[in-house]
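The instructor's notes for this session suggest beginning with a concrete chain rather than abstract definitions. Hand out the sequence below and ask the class to guess, before any prediction is shown, which regions might be ordered.
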Amino acid sequence: MKGFIRIIFVLCSLCLTSSVFAGWGVWSSSSSSSWGGTPVIPPVVYPAVELEMFVNGVSALGNPHQHFDYGEKVEISWKSKNAYRCFMHRQDLGVYNQVVGKNTSRKIVVKNRHNVYIYCNWSQWESWANWNFYSQSVTLFVNPIYPEITELKTSNVFIYPGETAKISWKTRSARSCTMDGVNVARRGNMEVSPNSVKHYRLKCISKTWHTSTKHVAVTVKQNIQNNNTTLMPEFIARANYNFVDYGDKVTISWKNSTEVEQCKTLWDNKIVPATGSKTITPKAGFDWYDIECTYKDWPFPKKQSVPITVK
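After discussion, reveal the predicted structure:
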């Protein structure tokens, strides 16, 4: 009899427990499980994060790449909504994942390429590894500055061995200059005494790392002397301009102080007077323009070469 009563008590306890849990909604009554169902957890809904960046107070949406003059001051700002935290990347400064305000700004003096990258997340539990964030970036470019070599000239295009020539130059908008790889002032002069024809190359760099290059040539004449008497004919030739723009005209002139048999301009193979000039339109690039003369009292022809560079 006592055993029967215990069985009845256990069954009633089980029925009561099942009814209470079903009333709480922990298990659904439709479940096939012997304990009565599956837990129901309501979904978590987070508000959407909004992020917008501005350049000097103007929205950068649709215009993330902008250009400014060197040294110009620019304000980058951003505004966010529903963000838990915001971060910034600045590759030009080596700054990564720096925590920044959700509504703040930075001032930049434009000197090269600047990229400002802002991203915000909506929860402290959000993982960077899962790429769950909202971002926008702005890139500032500096307008190029091209240095100008306004003047590069030599006092003498032709010299004799042992003589010197003075090379002078002037520049504009240059940060630094070199002459044949050696640092020189942005404006100055130097004396040279080459042993043969020599091209001197001036290269200048601007603050934005753009370059400009020009060169000038000095040619050394060779004399044959005997008992301090010049035996080689005196023959000179030069151009009114050694550096010209494409399409410009140049006048090449020559002069003989020795009795001549014949002279010829080799670029067009024409016979010309012993002393004279000819105006030409030189071809693009660098080239030598030669005049050759033969003499009655000199066994060898004499040639003079005029260097001309067309920019």
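Then share the key points. Residues 2-24 form the longest helix (23 residues). The mean pLDDT is 81.
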